[in-house]
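User: Fold this one for me? It's Sugar phosphate isomerase/epimerase.
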Amino acid sequence: MKLAFTTLGCPTWDIDKIIKNAVENDYDGVDFRGYLGELDIFTLPEFSSEVQQTVRKFQEASLEIPCFSSSVRLFTNTEEEFHRYLQEIEAYANLCQAFQTPFIRVFGGSIGEMSREKAYDIVEHNVLEYLKIAEKYDVQLLFETHDDWTNCEHMKEIFQRVQSNYFSVLWDVHHPYRTIGEDPNVTWEKLGSWIKYTHWKDSYVKEGTPRGYQLCLLGEGTVPLQEIYKMLKTKGYDGYYTLEWEKMWCPEIEEPEIAFQQYSSFMKNLFK
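Assistant: Here's what I get for Sugar phosphate isomerase/epimerase.
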């Protein structure tokens, strides 16, 4: 079992603290989603002019960066947006080469009032263009089960249209189950052949909240995490189990020192 956490969970930590905590809690990697409040980490010295120093720190700690979690959307409304995302993918692809990172996470995005069929056409076009960069740098784009693309049937349609070894699924095991009530077995049945990476979180229903649920430490909510883990193990999944602790968006949840240690212990107990 390979464990990682995303930096969404520790928005105030610097590189040294991130590495120290990961090593102390027996993680294998760190998935970067922002750094010190900046989501576009490729604009920062640690990932541009001083990138080799950052690479060396991770190598010395025997830690991987299995994925860079971008802000790229596959569905776009304007040419300007599309070209901005092309530039972002190239920036992250360069970082993937520096860190020997295999994956860049991308979102589907909100389609608004547009018909699903029209949205499929736009996403298909954009993915084919994005993949030209991915192939050039030998990196895979991970399409996350998120926002208007949580339903496995919607995801499957895109993968049937775009068949590429550089295009795979990031299964956030929380979102389909919690937001649309999708059975995890159905998610795997439809998307399993494309799933290369997973995000983990837990929650319970809480009426009167903006999301309708409350995030919590793993095992304290009602997402069937143990069953999902057993299924993944049975199916031969050998990718990362990455904690996406949304501290940056939800400051009321536990501090990263607590959540990261608890996740490592929880997952290792599942593994036994």
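One thing worth pointing out: The chain has one domain: 2-271.
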